[in-house]
Amino acid sequence: MAAAATTSLLLVDDHAIVRQGLAALLAREGDFAVVGEAGTYEDGMAALSALAPDGVVLDLSLRDRSGLDWIREARAKGYAGKILVLSMHDEGLYAEKALRAGAQGYVMKDQAEDTLVAALRAVRSGQTYLSPAAAALLAGHSAAAEKEADGFGGLTARESEILYAIGGGLTTREIAEKFGLSGRTVDVHRVNIKRKLGCGSLAEVLVKATEFKRAQDAALQPPAP
């Protein structure tokens, strides 16, 4: 989101009454303007394309598909604005997944009246917004991951993104275009990934990449009802 006078927002939630409440809450603030609303996954994606808002307030529990998938698709299509998740789901289970999918913050719906505006201003300024409890939990996960000297836990964020893309069948050229890198830089990342994963060939990297993508996708799926 731009830090200029007014930040345009798209609300994506399958409950009209929730969208109305959010719009009313934000209408009291002079630096936010709700420019669109959507109640389904596809309508939200269409509105994102048509309106190009500075930011999105997104529910994870869309009736037709997971909000986590929505975040991934938005990022895959090149949306560079901020995405703040507003959900009834336990942040201890979903906050990290939302951030990994591409969101910049996570707010529980029962805390929205007190924290939504502050959360939006935080992500607008480039910060990541989590409740203190969720932030502490995520820090614990990060500390545990840092102890892993090898395997996927040893990859940098960019290397993980590239490994995921490799697992999705993208070529070096497609990966370079997706992340705004040169082909040579992508090749350097491939070599580093190969070394860190202990692979003897690029074919083994592809196998690992497929395994990594499958695990990431499975982790981001909503629990069965």
What does this structure look like?
The chain is an alpha/beta fold and 225 residues long. It folds into 2 domains: 7-141, 3-Layer(aba) Sandwich (Rossmann fold); 152-219, Winged helix-like DNA-binding domain superfamily/Winged helix DNA-binding domain (Arc Repressor Mutant, subunit A, Orthogonal Bundle), CATH 1.10.10. The chain has 10 helices and 5 strands, in the order βαβαβαβαβαααααα. α7 (157-167) packs across α10. The radius of gyration is 19 Å and the shape is elongated. The two termini are 34 Å apart. The model is unreliable at 141-150 (pLDDT under 50).
Q: What is the gist of this entry?
A:
With 225 residues, the chain is an alpha/beta fold. 55% of the residues lie in helices and 12% in strands.
What descriptive keywords fit this protein?
single chain, 225 residues, alpha/beta, Arc Repressor Mutant, subunit A, five-stranded parallel β-sheet, 10 helices, 5 strands, elongated
CATH superfamily of the largest domain: Response regulator
Distance between the termini: 34 Å
Order of helices and strands: EHEHEHEHEHHHHHH
Structural class, by secondary structure, is alpha/beta
The CATH architecture of the largest domain can be given as 3-Layer(aba) Sandwich
